[in-house]
């Protein structure tokens, strides 16, 4: 029931806090979901007016998951998402103006307009994308969490994905390693019952997604994904345990998308009746009604929040529309980084990351060096660049060796 935390599930621990939300927080929660709903509705209009191009996947119906999960995270934490990520970006705190400008492909966007709807990224809020590959975010989240763990940052990575991703091999590989190495990842599956036009009922032998995670050694529980309070309560319990070093946790948030998979979808795989039945659980409408019925808000307060949301969206659209399109001459910028000598090479972060492997490959014989390079013949192999290892101060071959054999944390 809205406003009350669900009883402790299997992912809960003895020190898990109870969730107490006052009326102000519940009103904010409603406002946060409405903000996402209206933002995306405006995106549809801009898409139809051909101001937003490419693909557009809406989370219409799934707002409670984004809002409930984001509420449990701290600034040091990270989020890894899918192509259905506008709501999660907004809930995380990616500025709406920068997000709308990104949607319109403007230089003022959070990725200079280069990411667009499916690849929203924002370093300041550790919103690590936006990923078009189903399941692609899972190993990325594990990698981030691995780095956070080794650097002792105490951060948690929330990884959100659809139930379709749990059919990918990478789901099993990632959860296995996350459990083995006790990585600080909160896995959040948004089970909206469909992968494009494929009903979950016809796709997987295990209909209860959380049991798949449980089988891989990750404590898991199902959650009402249409109730932001239930999601926040479950996520808070899980995050407490993860931060305490107990390893990953998994939530299956049972939810539904009211609109099409993307903008081109005849939706022949489901009936209008089914959509209407789910609309009775609409998280935005439901919390609105609950706030009024339980005297946690009056109509004037909710109308004021609504007006603030609309004004913020109007300002974001105006900002984006008056933004700049990147000059064609700049298109090759950021593909390769310019060095002090004006020559181009891998960007510094990439160079630092690959330096240990390059140093190692440089010492190995040709056959060994080829083995990890993906090249089929010596002619295809990229030769180690002399001097690259020195470009990454402190990076040594020993580092790369220790990366291969991580210790299980105490
Ligand atoms: C590896 C891979 N396979 C197929 C696709 C095509 N594809 C795009 S979205 C999608 C459905 C994914 O469904 P789900 O994981 O449940 O997420 P939802 O769209 O429901 O949020 C598919 C198959 C893809 N992008 N990546
Ligand atoms: Mg799905």
CATH domain class of the largest domain: Alpha Beta
How many angstroms does the end-to-end distance come to? 38 Å
Q: What gyration radius follows from the Cα positions, in whole Å?
A: 23 Å
Number of helices: 14
- How many beta strands in the DSSP annotation? 9
Poorly predicted tracts of residues: 1-15, 363-410
**CATH architecture term of the largest domain:** 3-Layer(aba) Sandwich
| SSE class | alpha/beta
What's the SSE pattern? HHEHHHEHEEEHEHEHHHEEHHH
Bound molecules: thiamine diphosphate, magnesium ion
How would you state the average pLDDT, rounded? 86
Q: What is the global morphology? A: globular
Strand content: 5-15%
CATH superfamily grouping of the largest domain: Thiamin diphosphate (ThDP)-binding fold, Pyr/PP domains
The biggest sheet, with number of strands, parallel, antiparallel or mixed sense and barrel status, is: 5 strands, parallel
Taken together, the total number of domains comes to 2
Fraction in helix: 40-55%
Order of strands side by side in the largest beta sheet?
1-2-3-7-6
Give me the CATH fold name of the largest domain: Rossmann fold
Describe, in plain words, how this protein is organized in 3D.
The protein has two domains: 299 residues, Rossmann fold, CATH 3.40.50; 68 residues, no CATH class. It is 42% helix and 9% strand. The protein contains 14 helices and nine strands. The N terminus and C terminus are likely disordered. Magnesium ion (MG) binds next to strand 4.
């Amino acid at each position: 029931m809205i406003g009350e935390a669900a009883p402790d599930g299997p992912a809960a621990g003895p020190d898990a806090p109870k969730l107490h939300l006052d009326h102000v927080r519940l009103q904010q929660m409603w406002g946060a979901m409405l903000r996402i709903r209206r933002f995306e509705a405006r995106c549809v209009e801009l898409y139809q007016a051909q101001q937003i191009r490419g693909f557009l996947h809406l989370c219409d119906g799934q707002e409670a998951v984004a809002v409930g999960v984001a509420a449990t995270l701290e600034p040091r934490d990270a989020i890894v998402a899918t192509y259905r990520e506008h709501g999660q970006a907004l809930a995380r705190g990616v500025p709406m103006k920068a997000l709308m400008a990104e949607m319109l492909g403007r230089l003022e966007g959070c990725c200079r307009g280069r990411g667009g709807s499916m690849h929203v990224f924002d370093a300041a809020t550790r919103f690590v994308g936006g990923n078009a590959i189903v399941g692609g975010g899972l190993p990325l989240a594990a990698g981030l969490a691995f780095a956070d763990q080794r650097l002792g940052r105490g951060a948690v990575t929330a990884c959100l994905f659809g139930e379709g991703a749990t059919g990918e091999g990478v789901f099993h590989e990632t959860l296995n390693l996350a459990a083995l190495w006790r990585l600080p990842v909160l896995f959040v599956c948004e089970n909206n019952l469909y992968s494009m036009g494929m009903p979950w009922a016809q796709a997987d032998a295990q209909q209860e997604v959380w049991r798949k995670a449980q089988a891989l050694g990750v404590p898991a529980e199902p959650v009402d994904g249409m109730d932001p309070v239930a999601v926040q309560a479950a996520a808070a319990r899980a995050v407490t345990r993860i931060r305490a070093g107990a390893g990953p946790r998994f939530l299956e948030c049972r939810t539904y998308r009211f609109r099409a998979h993307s903008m081109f979808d005849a939706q022949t795989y489901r009936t209008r009746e089914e959509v209407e039945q789910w609309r009775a659980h609409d998280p935005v409408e439901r919390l609105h009604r609950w706030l009024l019925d339980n005297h946690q808000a009056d109509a004037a307060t909710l109308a004021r929040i609504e007006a603030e949301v609309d004004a913020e969206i109007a300002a974001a659209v105006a900002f984006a529309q008056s933004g700049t399109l990147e000059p064609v001459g700049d298109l090759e910028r950021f593909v390769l980084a310019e060095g002090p000598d004006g020559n181009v090479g891998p960007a510094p972060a990439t160079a630092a990351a690959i330096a240990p492997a390059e140093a190692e490959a440089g010492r190995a014989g040709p056959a060994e060096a080829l083995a990890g390079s993906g090249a089929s013949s010596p002619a295809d192999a990229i030769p180690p660049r002399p001097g690259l290892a020195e470009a990454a101060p402190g990076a040594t071959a020993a580092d790369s060796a220790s990366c291969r054999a991580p210790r299980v944390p105490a």
